[in-house]
Write a structure and sequence with these properties.
Layout: H1 18-30, E1 34-38, H2 45-56, E2 60-64, H3 66-71, H4 75-92, H5 95-101, E3 106-108, E4 113-115, H6 124-137, E5 142-147, H7 164-174, E6 178-184, H8 187-194, E7 209-212, H9 218-231, H10 238-248, H11 252-264, H12 268-286, H13 292-302, H14 308-319, H15 325-337, E8 341-344, E9 347-350, H16 353-360
Parallel strand pairs: 1-6, 1-7, 2-5, 5-6
Antiparallel strand pairs: 3-4, 8-9
Helix pairs in contact: 1-2, 5-6, 9-11, 11-12, 12-16, 13-14, 13-16
The chain binds adenosine-5'-triphosphate (ATP) and magnesium ion.
């Protein structure tokens, strides 16, 4: 179902991402060791990644880094996630386990794999080395996929921070049969974390493949809605469809959200309700920003103050507090890094129109 609100996992449910899927195919066949998938929130990164992994016919490890946000950024959770994934691989690629069994600190049970990393000198890299050995002996590639990888910057181990970019760079240099795919919705934050342009970063200067997941154009958005509605046997009036197209600007997540709700209760009132809910949802996300200044900056942009100077003045007026130039710049740069706004020709723009609507009303 196109309007299934969960991330899609099969190609039949994934609308119009054939080009992106073939780019991922090309990457595992002949690309660099690392693919970075960028895209703003709700654009369909997870869906693309999951459909690809399901179809590619290779062993893969999938780590959803948002789980760290919920359960803590500890090494134990990372190992737990690895155990679950490796245990899943057993079903189809049983011999992988034999390669892991030889590692000190790995306990293989009938239905579990346990990492005894606290007692034994075991590292994540050791595990990847063994996966690479298996892949090399079996003429395969093993894919390590990390969704929302920018969150890995908070990973902590026994003695301090775990630098996941160091692990990636080791694999990049030494393990021919391991490939990484990482995604991120905070595009600038992910870039900073990976540090391709930072001489102090492990991944400095590394060649990588990149893929940007973009919004649907208006025609595709309309077609997506039509197909979705015909699947659930509902036909909304074209005035409603056009209103939705105007308001969500091709973001698949919002099209899906609206389609799902409308199919369940097809009535004109639901449009208002859905948009109110969507705005509530984004405001919850916005409230996690470091301070109210960020929200005011968004509000300023949403009501038409698009230039640096005007945004600064608006924030100062609303907060009754002077801002230095450096503070203003930092606020705007952070919002750009979080992929909430973009800067073009010296004007700032909010990337998600639902966020723009929501902050305008604050
Ligand atoms: N190409 C697509 N075809 C069908 N549904 C899609 C497509 N892209 C996204 N969706 C739907 O949109 C919603 C958001 O998709 P998904 O979770 O994959 O996006 P995301 O970029 O990972 O979002 P987030 O940044 O919030 O994690 C989901 O309900 C998903 O089913
Ligand atoms: Mg996602």
């Amino acid at each position: 179902m196109l309007f299934d609100p969960r991330p899609k996992t099969s190609r039949g449910e994934l609308y119009d991402r054939d080009v992106e899927l073939s780019m991922l195919d090309g990457f595992v066949e002949s690309g660099s060791p690392l693919m970075v998938v960028f895209g703003i929130r709700r654009i369909g990164k997870t869906s693309l990644l999951r459909v690809f992994l399901n179809e590619v016919g290779l062993p893969y490890i999938y780590i959803d880094a948002r789980v760290f946000e919920e359960q803590g950024f500890g090494k134990d959770l990372l190992y737990r996630m690895l155990s679950i994934e490796l245990n899943r691989l057993r079903g189809k690629w049983a011999s992988i386990i034999e390669y892991l069994r030889v590692l000190e600190g790995v306990e293989v049970g009938a239905t579990t794999i346990r990492f005894n990393w606290r007692k034994k000198p075991l590292s994540i890299t050791d595990v990847f080395v063994r996966l690479d050995d298996w892949a090399s002996d079996n003429g395969r590639v093993v894919v390590i996929a990390v969704d929302e990888a920018q969150l890995l910057r908070y990973l902590k181990g026994g003695k301090g921070r775990i630098d996941f970019t160091k692990i990636i760079s080791y694999c990049y240099d030494n393990l021919r049969n391991i490939k990484f795919i990482v995604t991120g919705s905070e595009i600038g934050v992910l870039k900073d974390f990976l540090g391709f342009d930072n001489p102090n970063s492990w991944l400095y200067g590394r060649i990588r493949d990149e893929l940007v997941v973009d919004r649907f154009d208006r025609e595709k958005s309309r077609d997506f809605l039509e197909k979705g509605f015909s699947e659930c046997g509902v036909k909304p009036p074209s005035s409603i469809v056009e209103e939705v197209l105007d308001r969500v600007d091709g973001i698949p997540g919002w099209l899906t959200y609206f389609g799902y709700k409308y199919c369940r209760r097809p009535s004109p009132e639901i449009v208002k309700e859905v948009f109110s809910e969507a705005k509530r949802l984004v405001l919850e996300e916005i409230r996690k920003l470091p301070s109210k200044y960020y929200v005011y900056a968004l509000k300023a942009i949403s009501i038409g103050y698009k230039q640096w100077k005007n945004i600064k003045q608006a924030i100062e007026l609303w907060t009754n507090h002077p801002l230095t130039n450096a503070q203003t710049t930092r606020i705007l740069q952070t919002l750009v890094k979080l992929s909430l706004i973009e800067k073009e020709d010296n004007e700032y723009k909010i990337l998600d129109p639902i966020i723009a609507e929501a902050v305008k009303e604050l």
